[in-house]
Amino acid sequence: MYCTRKVTDTIWWVGGNDRRLALFENLFPIPRGVSYNSYVIMDEKTALMDTTDPSITPLFLANVAHTLNGRKLDYLIINHMEPDHCSNIEEIMHRYPEATLVCNAKVLQMIGQFYDLDLTGRTMIIKEGDTLSLGSHTLHFVAAPMVHWPEVMMVYEDSEKILFSADGFGSFGALNGNLFNDEVNFDRDWLDDARRYYTNIVGKYGVQVQAVLKKASGLDIQMICPLHGPVWRNNLGYILDKYVKWSTYEPEDKSVAIMYGSMYGNTERAADILATALSTAGVKDVRVYDISNTHVSELISEAFRCSHIVIASPTYNGGLYPVVESLLNDMKALNLQNRTFALIENGTWAATSNKHMRAIVETMKNMTILDTTVTVKSSVKEAQIETLQKLAKEIVDSLT
Ligand code: FEO
């Protein structure tokens, strides 16, 4: 049975939701599920914009067939070859033998890598700047390399002023019937997942995202149709502003996230004392995270949101506590920049974690490490409370 939704008078959403998948890319927890969006444009010619993940194949095929309502499919347009979108290419090309697959050369190469599919005489290779007329709709192909893979194209449709943005402007989270951003409370219910999706999946490629934003700024865009999450049909400035901040690695908020590793609670105590001192000094919305018990994707998302990051780590095997080391390396891998760091170390016989944390942070771009560093020897004593108070003051001063 089908489940579709009208996007405009001539365009339908034909995607679906997966609420059973635990880990997106077998990495990222998605307790709110995820949607795989696909769109059909009905004109003199019909076009299907990308396919979906195999988990929703039966629904997707029913949606496409229902929407086409007996008409043939003229074009299958493939903008991105990650399997959460390309997994039904073979089935679509089989079911619609008159369809032409429209893609760029890199996409075609990847189709050959993923599948054994004879597309002889059934492809149309396009490149940046090319157009394809469907009748009253004209598709303009826009290269968007590394948003999120090198082959990615976006498509701008000029009669309805819609940007089909591939993974760009997408989000984790299943759609609950509400397809459009103005049908949900995005800021309350979606922003955290949109940030977590962007920062963990595309975060490394800020420069490339900025290049696409620059191209988009030259287009009159009234609607954004991504491959995951809500369709944007108003207040586009809100999500564009987020993308500008995330892609330029500017913090969204002047705020503090304290992320600690702690084996027996002593390093955690230092984190709590610092958080309390900050709050007493008037800092609002301080967040404290146990790195061992918070998924790294949430910590990365918070690191992109906050201006100030405090890392507290035990010394472990003469180096860093493994989850702390992994988190810092992930921040570096995702190109996090322009943050203020404060460091707290703990060690019972030789505290060296500050040195190791500093060594990683110093290799990242435009990071400030505050002067006050706190050394705990096994457990917090009065002397460390004083140093934590001093660190809190330094953080407060740097927040203003
Ligand atoms: Fe949603 Fe890069 O795939």
What keywords describe this structure?
alpha/beta, Metallo-beta-lactamase, Chain A, seven-stranded mixed beta sheet, elongated, Rossmann fold, 400 residues, binds MU-OXO-diiron, 23% strand
Report what the structure shows.
The chain is of the alpha/beta class. The protein folds into 2 domains: 5-248, Ribonuclease Z/Hydroxyacylglutathione hydrolase-like (Metallo-beta-lactamase, Chain A, 4-Layer Sandwich); 256-399, Flavodoxin domain (Rossmann fold), CATH 3.40.50.360. It contains 13 helices and 23 strands. The chain has helices spanning 57-68, 83-86, 89-95, 105-114, 186-189, 191-201, 206-217, 236-248, 266-280, 296-305, 322-333, 353-361, 382-399, and strands at residues 5-8, 11-13, 16-18, 23-24, 28-29, 34-36, 39-42, 46-49, 75-77, 100-103, 123-125, 131-133, 138-143, 153-157, 162-164, 223-225, 253-260, 287-290, 306-316, 319-320, 340-346, 368-369, 374-376. The protein has a 7-stranded mixed sheet. Strands 17, 18, 19, 20, 21, 22 and 23 form a 7-stranded mixed sheet that branches. β7 (39-42) and β8 (46-49) form a beta hairpin. α7 runs antiparallel to α8. The longest helix is centred in the C-terminal third of the chain and has 18 residues, at 382-399. The structure holds MU-OXO-diiron (FEO). Residues 80, 82, 84-85, 148-149, 167, 227-228 line the site of MU-OXO-diiron.
